[in-house]
Amino acid sequence: MVPTLRNKKSAISKSDAVYRALKRAILDQALAAGAKLPEDSIGERLGVSRTIVRQALARLSGEGLIELRPHKGACVAQPSLEEAHHIFAVRQALETLVIDTLIGKLTQQQIRQLEAHVEAEDMARASNASSSIQLAGEFHVLLAKLTENDVLLRYVTELVSRSSLILSLYGRPHSPDCAVSEHRELIAALDSNEREKACALMRHHIDAITTRALLKGSSENDLPDVLATYAREEGL
Amino acid sequence: MVPTLRNKKSAISKSDAVYRALKRAILDQALAAGAKLPEDSIGERLGVSRTIVRQALARLSGEGLIELRPHKGACVAQPSLEEAHHIFAVRQALETLVIDTLIGKLTQQQIRQLEAHVEAEDMARASNASSSIQLAGEFHVLLAKLTENDVLLRYVTELVSRSSLILSLYGRPHSPDCAVSEHRELIAALDSNEREKACALMRHHIDAITTRALLKGSSENDLPDVLATYAREEGL
DNA sequence: TGGGATTTGTTCGTATGTATT
DNA sequence: GAATACATACGAACAAATCCC
User: Fold this and answer.
1) What are the tens digits of pLDDT across the range A180-224?
2) Which residues are within 7 Å of strand D by their Cβ atom?
3) pLDDT tens digits, residue range A17-67?
């Protein structure tokens, strides 16, 4: 027996899988903002007990992706415009720190990694709108990851997730269009060690994202059926 | 019947109470860094089931105050020096944002509120070392609260908590001595709307705090008995 | 307004996995 | 190296609160 080898997917805890399934469902907008999340039906649909679902919900609540009202159940968060501004303000500060930390310390390999990611963004731009938003967000997460500052990474990840939710609520239908070029400029500035320029670019980029969170384009789906997809992929 | 009136403390959920009891116990250094936190004994000591304790532990883990190793139990976090630097770097960025948000928007009443708090810090300085550290941290939380940015408030609160833990691990015995005067200068700059000066002061202040996290002064206590105090105050 | 159905909050028992002797 | 002891992971049932008719 080799205990380090994870022959079974259940090596990672079930509540983790449920957490990820729900998170992805929310970020993919398969679960619309404001949608109710009854513990029973989710557990039934995903084949786990309510305890597991509860844990996942508590975690999501901590990250601001769902709202957890006592005795009244959980639902996907509906950030107000005010909340949205708060989130982008904090992103502004944190992602400037990311750039400030990264400047002058990136290897050519890391630069290439960033460029490859933007390439993928570009590819997805035309085809899949949902994955395009997803990839645009992941670019920011990737930058944060390169700082090797876990605290910073956690906060940026959280805020990027919530930003996705905000975009789905208030954003224009085809919002991530121009993000790609902005990401490319940022990489260029990082590559040439232009601190001030890179910071300014990031500031403007976040400003641009914030501005794009303006017009509304909503879409409705029925809740429980869509979960099947995510359940399968998380091994549930 | 007046349902809005909370005659009983149990209006707030049990796991909340346990969470707060444990958090305070950790921040007061009643539970030393690295101390084991078995679900059973805590639950027994506090008169609640393991499930409740589990929820509280999960939440504390999410905030970085405890470490939650799968199948190996929970213990009070022992942030490494590297982690400490990460935390203070993020604090730097976020608390600069706090100042930037607050500048020019504070009422005289709020200024007085801040001054009153520093007064309390000054009073506690000589008498109680533990509550002195606590109050110094709460000053930063108070500032964040005044921004009315909930996201910012949550992160600052979290980081201040973790900073307390770091100070208890690596800090000098009598570290918060000079903090009071630095807080006063900060208030003065805020009062006179000097944006650049206030931001610089905050930067230097966090730098100073970071520097003070250097020498070590540890203390040991036995774990379960101290919980009684916190249990009582949280209504357990 | 009241009662029943539904959903959440909590407890406890069983199973599983890890460390120790 | 195997068996024991211990602590966590999970699940089913109970109790309390809310919502709807």
Assistant:
1) 899 999 999 999 999 999 999 999 999 888 887 754 433 444 444
2) A 13-15, 48-52, 71-72; B 3, 37-40, 50-51, 54, 70-74
3) 899 999 999 998 889 889 999 998 998 888 888 998 999 999 999 999 999
Query: What does the alpha-carbon distance between residue A94 and residue B86 come to, in Å, rounded to a whole number?
Result: 12
Rounded to whole angstroms, the Cα distance separating A103 from B109 reads: 42
Look at the block and give the residue holding tokens 């022959």: A7
Which chain C nucleotides are covered by protein, judged by CB under 7 A?
7-13, 17-19
Q: Are B205 and B186 within 8 A, CB to CB?
A: yes
Dihedral sign from CA coordinates of A5, B80, A139, A156 = positive
- Residue B21 CA to residue B28 CA, distance in Å, equals 11
CA angle A134, A137, A143 (to 5 degrees): 135
Pick from B64, B70, B93: CB nearest A97: B93
Domains of chain A: residue spans and CATH: 5-78+219-233 (1.10.10.10), 81-210 (1.20.120.530)
